[in-house]
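[job 4471] stage=fold_predict status=RUNNING
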Amino acid sequence: MSQLVNFFADNPHLLLHKLLSHIAICAVGLAIAVTVALPTGIYLGHKHRGSWIAFSVSNGFRALPSLALIAISIAVFGISEVNIQIALIALAIPPILTNAYTAVDQVDQDAVDAARGMGMRDREVLWRVELPLSWPLIFAGIRTGSVFIIATAPLAALAGGGGLGDIIVNQSTYHLSGVIAASIVVVALAFAVDGLLALLQRSVTPAGLTLPKEIHTIVPATDRVEVAA
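[job 4471] inference complete, writing structure tokens
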């Protein structure tokens, strides 16, 4: 324990530098995953079609090992940050895509019909009815994807990407205390980001739809949709 405390005390600048690098890597991967998966899931859910696309893509990406993706992409792109981003994006897309599709697709049809009866156009129904009702589950997917990315990003060290993984995979230089210290920082970062996204989720969710702290996340399955606590 004393060695761990000493590592934190002796290497604050190192940990801060690696933390900032780790955050940058995660932010890029999450931004790309959200940009690709969120509009796709919302559109398919709004149209109530293409469920096989959402769940097939999610199941396929979930089945791909991150290390295998990095190894394959190294052969194509060489040692670069592109390799880890491919793995992170593939890891984050399934929960974001699946939750976005399911959230919009399962909006109460009576609310949608009432909005159309009031004269709302298709786009207005989406923005003023379906999305506000879908935010809790949509954000649950984003939160899950962000935690997946943060926890997997240490693999960036294997592909020259940097971040806290540089410490975690280099026990010969930083010793066990350094590995544990960097791992603790990764865990703390995951909790912090999840908490910030939870606050953002509550700020955009209508008061009447605020869910308990235990938010459900959709886990794609080959033949059905399961809800995992």
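[job 4471] summary: The CA atoms of residues 104 and 140 lie 13 Å apart.
[job 4471] exit 0
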